[in-house]
Amino acid sequence: MSLEFLLTSLVVVATPGTGALYTIAAGLSRGARAGYVAAIGCTLGIVPHMVAAITGLAALLHTSATAFQILKYLGVAYLLYMAWSTLRDKGALAAPEDAAPRSAARVILSAVLINILNPKLTLFFFAFLPQFVAPGEPEALPRMIELSAVFMLLTLVVFAAYGKFAAAVRHRVISHPPVLTWMRRVFAAAFAALGAKLAFV
């Protein structure tokens, strides 16, 4: 495992994106447990992209404008839905301590959808993984699986840290209603901006 791969992967994972934003929102709204569950969901959302890259489906998405556009606009629509639901749900970041926790399955499903509907992840794997596999290497498949597993582990650790940090400042945030209002607006705007950015990829 090269240091270059680890550093590059860490930079990519740590750069705030849709998954990190969702994990932070989960940590703020429901605490550390929800943040960890969201981190797991975002990590699981990488699996389809990894499989696509390894099996060659990424090549199809890369060469088929129609396939890429369909996936891209599904992702845009979901991000805009996340922006709308965040803005309208006034209780999203103000869940009381005794509130029933949101179903882990629902948190994971939302997190998985966020990453599945992100075609940039597929293109990233398609362009990134081959750089660390020697041409003609007989163990290319196990090698790509190993690299993908490391990338997923880094994603889980970094996103869990995001969720933990969000949960740590949760009490300070939810005790100030004006802060909550602006937090909702910021998260909604961020989801909308990410959707708009994806639309113009």
Note the beta-strand portion. Answer: under 5%
Structural class: mainly alpha
pLDDT average, as an integer?
Answer: 77
**Helix content bin:** over 70%
The number of distinct helices, counting runs of at least 4 residues, comes to: 11
According to DSSP, the number of beta strands is 0
Low-confidence residue ranges: 91-100
Distance between the termini: 31 Å
The helix/strand series, from N terminus to C terminus, equals HHHHHHHHHHH
Shape estimate: globular
Summed up, the domain count is: 1
Q: What is Rg?
A: 18 Å
Largest sheet: none
Compact description:
With 201 residues, the chain is mostly helical. It has helices at 3-14, 18-30, 32-44, 47-55, 57-63, 65-88, 104-116, 119-128, 140-168, 170-174, 177-199.
Verbal overview:
The chain is 79% helix and 0% strand. With 201 residues, it is mostly helical. Helix 5 crosses helix 6. The protein is globular. About 5% of the residues have low confidence.
